[in-house]
Amino acid sequence: MIYPPMARSEVDWENPVFPRSKSLDVPPPVTAAIRKKPRLRLREHLRAYFIAGILVTGPVSLTLYLAWLFVDFVDSRVALLIPETWNPANYLPVHIPGLGLVTVVIGLTLIGALTAGYVGRRLLRIGDRLLARMPLIRGLYGAMKQIFETVLSKQSNTFREVVLLEWPRREMWTIGFITGRTEGEIKELTHEDAVNVYVPTTPNPTSGYLVHVPRSEVVVLGMTVEEGIKFIISGGIVAPPPRVAGKPIAAESRSENAVTSPS
Question: Within 10 A of 194 (CB to CB), how many other CB atoms are there?
Answer without folding.
Answer: 20
